[in-house]
Amino acid sequence: MSSLDALIDALKRLPGVGQKSAQRMAFHLLQHDRAAMQGLAQALRAAGEDIKHCQRCHTFSETELCRVCADPDRDARLLCVVESPADQAALERTASYRGYYFVLLGRLSPLDGIGTRDIGVTELLARALEGVEEVILATSFTAEGEATAHVLAEALRARGIRSTRLARGVPVGSELEYVDLSTIAHALVDRR
Amino acid sequence: MSSLDALIDALKRLPGVGQKSAQRMAFHLLQHDRAAMQGLAQALRAAGEDIKHCQRCHTFSETELCRVCADPDRDARLLCVVESPADQAALERTASYRGYYFVLLGRLSPLDGIGTRDIGVTELLARALEGVEEVILATSFTAEGEATAHVLAEALRARGIRSTRLARGVPVGSELEYVDLSTIAHALVDRR
Ligand SMILES: [Zn+2]
Ligand SMILES: [Zn+2]
After folding, report:
1. Cα atoms in the 13 Å half-sphere on the side-chain side of A54
2. From the CA of B141, how many Å to the nearest CA of chain A?
3. Reported ipTM
4. Taking the model in full, what pTM does it have?
């Protein structure tokens, strides 16, 4: 295989990149931005070597403890459980949560063979017993995310730890007309 | 800057990739496909080192002469001028052209300071004098592509070499109703 074909194939493994975009990317880099090509190669290598997981919350971190876990000024009574570092980053961007996190790095999916051990439930339960008063289950509102939240809520309840779920509802800024029906139905049920 | 931020920045230099997709790509690679990460780093490096330009037609090539230029069974009377290796690849995929190519690696753009020297006009004229009977100007049907074709046609005519332009017209498979007006107008003028 030529280096060009190998490059196109490698670019196709990026999420959302098909044959056509991969080809366009490869040609663009080769013709207009050889510096970006070397920069990306270097950034990929460095990220692969430097980025591990936080020992406490399992999010991506270049240090033993991530920035959030290492911050003593957070509210230690709150622990928010998310599926991925990307979800955690989204929550952090809202700047409206001041507790700590636990990142599952997945969600329960029996069909794919992903069980409680794979998402670190034992570690989560141990972490929740360190003075946490409320675990906010912020897994996705998908079938698997809901099932994961349910299992975690039961396990936490058995240990006397209260858990809550993010509110379902109409996205801020949306016109009701364009919101899908099940979201509206949930927003009705969860009305304040 | 952290290795994660550096990776997101590097991914943003890919065409069509903004902050959000770059972040999604980085998180996906880190969480699900570390092998793809190393593979892409390797492919970028190899491509940067291996892929040069064909000495004859200027397209990307890992050898002195590209596969097309090295093929003695092509029709040496035909030379097709394109703006980029991507355009050449598109023409090759049609499997309906059997001549050789000359790749400008750009198009005339006085405002951006891209002149005849930058797109290799001297080399093209020399190449066209090597037994070529018809130069097909397949530059884009944009203002700059048209201007480039015009300048090349004049220079070729002055040397007694015939040039043609790809036909403008209605894309195959399109309903007239949805084709833009200037395309229909050109298709009328160029009607066969
Ligand atoms: Zn952490
Ligand atoms: Zn060539």
Report:
1. 22
2. 19
3. 0.81
4. 0.79
